[in-house]
Structure formats: C-alpha cells, structure tokens
Amino acid sequence: MGNFELNGKTAVVTGAGQGLGKAFARALAEAGAEVFVMARNIERLKKTAEELAAATGSRVYAQALDITSEESIEKACRSVVEKSGKIDILINNAALGRSDAELQNETLETWNQIMNTNLTGTFLMMKHVGKVMIEQGGGKIINLASMTGMVAVRNPSVGAYDVSKAGIACLTRIMAGAWSRYHITVNSISPGYYMTDINRAYVKDHPEFYEDSLKQIPLQKWGKEEDIGNIAVFLASSASDYMTGANIVTDGGYTVW
Q: Is 2-194+224-250 in CATH node 3.40.50.720?
C-alpha cells in the first residue's frame, strides 16, 4: 500500500474549514502529507488545523484565502512556498452552494458570485499553483466538480452552481492535456449527496428532500465524508500516476438512472 502514502508531500486544500474540504485535509494528513488548509474564516481554520494536526500527527497549517481575489491567491501560494519550498498537491474545493432561486428568478449578482467563486476561483488557484508545479517539475491537481454538472437533478434550485461545476469538469480535461508535458496530472471528483454538517442541518429542516433523494440513489444512502477523502488520497498519490483528465463520480449511483 506504499503507493498511497504521501510522506514528504506538501498539499493545499481550499475551503477546508469544514465539510468535504476538512475531510480531504484529514485524509491527506493521515496519509502523511504536510497540509495547508485555506479558507476565508481564519479563526475556524486555525481550529481545524489544530484538530487535524492533533488527530493525525502531521503538520497542518492555516492560511487565510479569498478564492475570488487573485491577490489573496498569490499571497497564499507565496506563503506555502516560503514555508515548504513546494506544492505537490492541490485540492480545489472552495465553492458557494446552490442558490434558493429558480433560474427565472435568479439575480445577476448571485449568478456572478457563484461563478466567480466556483469556476473562476478554481481557474485562479490552478493558474498560480500551476506555475509553482511547472517550475518544480510536476504535481497533482484535484478539482471538485459535481454530479449536478453531469445531470439535471430533481431540485427546484438549479442554475449557476450546476453550470459552474460542469465548467470545472471541462477545465479539468483541458488542462490535463495542456499540462501533461509538465508532469502535472489534473483530475476531478464529482460528488453526489454527502452528509456534511451543513447538509445535515439542511435535511433536518427539509426531511422531504432527503427522503425523495434516497429514492433516486441506487445505494439508497448519502455518502460519508471519510469515503470521499480516500478518493482524494488515491488521486494525490503515486497510485494514480497514469491517470489524468479523469472525473471520478461518487454519487451512490445517482447518475446511472
């Protein structure tokens, strides 16, 4: 199982203060990587870093990041390189969730906020981390797409979020080809429904949504955070060295129907 070890690797995880981002950071740290967790809420992030470091024994650092600001991204990348000298792994997880409005009622402001965070933010992180990886001779980039970028889910709130995730999957494929000559692999993960703290609170208030979703998932359950963390370790490790441009769908089978 040595191919799955990340000892000596430096990883960056955006949107890592909670939810899937935190799960990714934990999984990478458990595999031996030094991890920089990034998000806007620095106080929550510091607590996350302390918790993960204590639980895994790996070095975990908190770094403030505004994914919509290129200046903030440049500063964050410099900070990582100054401290560790490299960036081996990037997980682009930071994103805004789905709007409550149907498309015909969506405001341009909300549309732009979601697109700027999810798609443009992913582009900017890839741009600046990619420069570091090109200079050092390689790296692994993992982008977070979504099953909603592949199929139209039965949910009244659709639009910018779904389009942004489809764009991320497309960006992944394009850059996998473009950066292969630099020994950079670029893959994406498309999650379905996962029982994060945020989603747990949502389904508590909307039990009908949860029950209806189970009818559409062949495995008849939502995913667990630790399950998707293992997929990130695979894509970040040498076990996936011959994989690039791929999109791993982890949706309990939602998209097969």
A: yes
Does 190 score more than 90 pLDDT?
A: yes
**Of the residues 161, 193, 194, 254, which is catalytic?**
161
Give CA 155 to chain center in angstroms. Answer: 22
What residues does each domain of the chain span? Answer: 2-194+224-250
pLDDT in tens, 165-175: 999 999 999 99
pLDDT tops 80 at residue 154: no
Supply 88's token pair. 């081996």
Q: Quick one: pLDDT band at residue 235, thresholds 50, 70, 90?
A: very high
| Neighbouring residues of 166: CB distance < 8 A, sequence distance ≥ 6 | 145, 149, 150
**Radius of gyration, CA atoms only, the chain:** 17
Q: Identify which of 242, 249, 232 has the alpha carbon closest to the alpha carbon of residue 15.
A: 232
Instruction: Say whether 210 is catalytic.
Output: no
> DSSP string spanning 182-207?
GTEEEEEEEE--B--HHHHHHHHH-H
